[in-house]
Amino acid sequence: MEKINDFRILELIISGFKGFSEPQTFQFDYGINFILGDNGLGKTTIAEAIAFAFMGTGFFGEKTLDRLQNGDAKEMFVSVKFADEAGEVHELTKTRKNNANGITYDGYNVRQADLYNLFGDKDLFLSMFNPLYFIETLGTDGKNLLEKLLPAVSHEEVLAALPEETREALKGENILSPETYIQNRRAEVKGLEEDLIYMQGQADLLEGGAKKAQAELAAVAAELQEKKALIQEDAQEGGLPETLADARLRLQKVRDKAFVFDGDTEICRLEAVLEPLYARHKAIFKYLHEICTGQKCALCGHEMEDADVMAAREELKRNLEECISEGKAAKAGLKRLMQEKEAKLRAFQEAQAAETARLEKSIAALQTQRQTEALRRECGELETKIRMLSETLKQPDIKGEMEAIRREADAKKRLISHAVSYLGKKNELLFAPLKMNRVSISLSEVIKTTGEVKDTFKFAYKGKGYAKLSLSEKLRAGLEIAELVKRLSGRRYPTFLDNGESVSVVDNVRLTGQTLFSKVQKDRPLTIVFRGSRKKAGSADVGKAA
């Protein structure tokens, strides 16, 4: 099965789905369709059914499907006929019976994974189909979706957009990863500046006498030897497979993991059963001991004789026995569940304690390894210092060397400045496809002072954050996002705008592909209107649909 890049829904048949217990057929036009009707007639159900057919989820990607099945129906059935970009008509059918799903595509049994190959994954499909899915369901995870869809920007494209001075400065530089390039150059500049500071100190030392430099050289050599001895002591330690940060993160996850018991719901139910049983037992027991001859009957009001009292007591005893029997059964079930919960809690705590101990031991070993690595770095610095001290003693012309280092550092700083410009232009070109009419999305930003790329996810509509938008603004913003995803993915799938009555006019984006607008109209039956004509829903009693 080849990927489908464009399709239009022609017909939808649902049965046993939410409020539709009987088969219901809906037909749609290729262009704009208006789904009209009063509240509770099934407008949103149509969106839910289409999402279930293609992705196996609800309209907002919910995996819990029990709420979609009609309570009176044994089987949930959804069938969609659609035309692809070549005009070929396909039929996709999905059923659910006894918690088992069945899928057929053009008469062949398929898996949900096959549908992902045809239509993309859930996030891609629903970001086009449901205008509110991207920001309300995906949220910051939408950044990952957009980054996968954005086209790559070549090195040549970036250079062509930069000033000639920058192009010439970066000519021959390996800058395919500008962040790493800037980081490396900054480290080099830092090293050069540290060298300058050190060399200035050496110049002062030479002025004070060569003996002082010689003494320092000996001290540095001794320190180096000492640190190498410490490294040798740890040389027998094997390498560890994970980083300290990873181990600490795993330890935190283990500590934060909460105990969950599947039987909590049943425990609550049994406790709720026992409470009225206790009250009933108390009332029967009290009345059994208070009833006597001459007392007025609670039902008919006449004075009871001995026979009446005896009959009433027998009935009360039977009721009391039934109450006691029910209570014992409920208490036995509750006791069993509490014992099971306690046992599972102990097992969970023991496993959690064992994993915590193992990770703490791993962290201790990693910290020792990190100390060894720090010693190696310090040894490298000491070796550099020894070489420089030796050179200082041999060549007193330190000022000439310092001037050369200053020139080298200045040259690298200029390269860093050009590389920051390169990185800024690369991000500008990379994120250019995200440009929309009223919606703005930012996935990262370059800190100009350091050249560091900081991951962000900022979403705004007409300059306002999503949380401050009205429903109509959210829907308009969602339509721009849906069209953006269509453009970036090269797919043109239908878009379903629920609560369309909140949007009087769509003037911020040009809609492509098939569009379904759901609008509430008071006292109107469920109706589908397209191309100036009006088509009611099928023959089922849609007035009862949910």
Mean pLDDT: 86
* Spatial strand sequence of the major β-sheet: 2-1-4-5-6-7
Morphology: flat
Beta-strand proportion:
15-25%
Radius of gyration: 38 Å
Tally of strands: 14
SSE string, helices as H and strands as E: EEEHEEEEHHHHHHHHHHHHEEEHEEEE
**Which ranges are low-confidence, i.e. pLDDT below 50, for 5 or more consecutive residues?**
532-546
The chain-level structural class is alpha+beta
Which sheet architecture does the biggest sheet show? 6 strands, antiparallel
Helix segment tally: 14
Helix-residue proportion: 40-55%
Distance between the termini: 35 Å
The gist of it:
With 546 residues, the chain is an alpha+beta fold. The protein has helices at 43-55, 112-119, 122-129, 133-138, 142-149, 155-160, 164-169, 178-208, 210-233, 244-256, 264-290, 306-394, 398-430, 471-489, and strands spanning 7-15, 24-27, 32-37, 75-84, 89-97, 100-105, 108-109, 439-447, 452-461, 464-465, 495-497, 515-520, 527-530, 533-536. A six-stranded antiparallel beta sheet has the order 2-1-4-5-6-7, covered by helices on one side.
